[in-house]
Amino acid sequence: MKKPQSVPVEQARKEFADLLDGSQHKGEFAEITRRGKRSGILVPPDWYDAAVNALADVKELRRENEQLKGGTV
User: Fold this and answer.
1) Across the 73 residues of the chain, what is the mean pLDDT of every consecutive 10-residue run?
2) What is the pTM of this model?
3) What does the alpha-carbon distance between residue 1 and residue 18 come to, in Å, rounded to a whole number?
4) How far is CA 69 from the centre of its chain?
């Protein structure tokens, strides 16, 4: 994954449709900044879905691991 494009919030407002198109169709990421500090990240929908699923898998594995440690399967 390449470094996200950094876009100030005022510019992001003006170019929102273009940023969405880049994310959805080209897999581009955008870092939205306010006063030079990161305030949000625009990610491609497929990337977001994969990240949410991966987090759910990790939570499930941790739960199973805790059950095994406690002997309650």
Assistant:
1) 88 97 95 96 96 94 88 57
2) 0.74
3) 20
4) 32
